[in-house]
Amino acid sequence: MIQVFNYIADLQSYLKAKRDSGLTVGLVPTMGALHEGHLSLMRRAKKENDIAVASVFVNPVQFNNPVDLEKYPRTPERDVALLESAGCDAVFMPSVEEMYPAKVEDHYDFGAIEHVMEGACRPGHFNGVAIVVRKLFEIVEPNRAYFGEKDFQQLAIISKLVKDYNINLEVVPCDIVREKDGLAMSSRNMRLNADERAIAPMIYKVLRETVAEYETMSPAEMKALALKKYSDIKQFDVEYVEIADETTLQSVSDWKDSEHARIFVALQLGPVRLIDNLRIY
Ligand code: PAF
Prior knowledge:
The protein is of the alpha/beta class. It is built from eleven helices and nine strands.
């Protein structure tokens, strides 16, 4: 039976007993409104650890847009039932006051990786992610923490956080989980209307078609091709397309300068901002 904790002290005493008996702990941090992508992280956490913990917390300090925060879907009862079905042992669902009893003033500097793409478009977003993720790591002290590659830049930021602050855990990157039609799973997808949902798979289709041209194109040509394909779809309002190195997240201008490159996109579709990415090589 899954255990639900609203208070840090209660979760910590539950976890201390588990750790004292030599059990390992895997953490899946989420903001709720769970989908199959989150559940696949949870199943993996349960497979690789004795105890699987999820957090469900819509973190206000990572939203730079108050409307986005207000409209962020919240489905707590459903989340608990889904987590239980995926093997979750304990879920941490704190209030904002429990997580932030005082105003948080921390300022992280992750260098070049935070100034591009999501970092450039959503000022303060990664600082807010780092604040909450570090807190969750300190509360749960997991052996492993699981994050999806849809938020590829977030994964890079969290890996750097763990390295810079010598946090003793393994960050486990997990493949993007997609709907049958290719749309990357996201809690935000539930805010799309039927027409928007019907066109949304084109986000991934364009990435795939563009990546297929890798042998014949320079990075700049590939980026131009993707932008052209997206601009032909009138419902899409593209924020950026980037072709970047997987480690530095900086733009690639010559394929030979990057061991692994990825194409990234962020766009607005109706009321929803969606992101996706795909490895080129
Ligand atoms: O990816 C998310 O859902 C959030 O950014 C995270 C990692 C749970 C932090 O709030």
